[in-house]
């Protein structure tokens, strides 16, 4: 998994689109500054990871390929905004889209500093991640940076009651948590299904499958059966070879 450092090219345009949806200019500026330079400061030392545009959003369960981070955040933002529509249009209640979007943008933004590249190009946990998980890192960093408590709660509760230090206690936190797990599951389940189909169809593992490739393989199985899977795998291999 090559995490090419492209240098400082500013914020990825797909992330910028999500940041630009935040109406409150003060909050938008503060989020933009952090997303442009996602670092954590501990004992005077600044930790910086791979650029967000090439980072995965996980090492195993979901979005575990270069570019996975951006896909996860943009997909989670779409799902979260749809949930906000439901809260308002169906349940006639209120929800702050600004805080939901800010929560989505921040919730995994320090994941890259928890990864490091091995000599063979694959990733493992960084020495920092052997001491602190990404949730503790992001919560402590946004407290240090003076973000509002309401937003700190959204980020702190994003793993839900079962896997986090606190469950969602606000509508915004619940929306952010549900959007996060929905996209993680959507991506993770399709990756696993595509890996299984590739193994069954060819007897070989398809190394580091992306979300887009996985959806194509699963769709081919649905429409054209095992022949479709084989053809799609062949196209995927050729595309990888020529890129
Ligand atoms: Fe997380
Ligand atoms: Fe996430």
Summarize the structure.
This protein has 243 residues and is mainly alpha-helical.
Describe the structure.
The two termini are 15 Å apart. With 243 residues, the chain is mainly α. Strands 1-2 form a two-stranded antiparallel ribbon. The chain contains nine helices and four strands. The model is unreliable at 4-8 (pLDDT under 50). The chain folds into two domains: 13-181, Hypothetical protein af1432 (Orthogonal Bundle); 187-242. The chain is globular, with a radius of gyration of 19 Å. The chain has helices at 13-19, 25-36, 68-89, 97-107, 134-144, 149-156, 160-163, 171-202, 211-242, and strands spanning 39-42, 45-48, 115-117, 123-125. 41% of the residues are buried. The structure holds fe (ii) ion (FE2) (2 copies). Residues 107-108, 134-135, 158-159 line the site of one fe (ii) ion (FE2). Residues 72, 107-108, 180, 184 line the site of one fe (ii) ion (FE2).
How large is the share of residues in beta strands? 5-15%
Q: Mean pLDDT, rounded to whole units?
A: 92
How many DSSP E strands? 4
Radius of gyration: 19 Å
Report strand order across the widest sheet: 1-2
Small-molecule binders here are: fe (ii) ion
Given as residue ranges, the uncertain stretches (5+ residues, pLDDT < 50) are 4-8
Shape: globular
Task: Spell out the helices and strands N to C.
Answer: HHEEHHEEHHHHH
What distance lies between the first and last C-alpha atoms, to the nearest angstrom?
A: 15 Å
Q: What is the CATH class designation of the largest domain?
A: Mainly Alpha
- Class of secondary structure makeup: mainly alpha
Residue share in helices? 55-70%
The biggest beta sheet reads:
2 strands, antiparallel
| CATH 2nd-level architecture of the largest domain | Orthogonal Bundle
Write the CATH fold name of the largest domain.
Hypothetical protein af1432
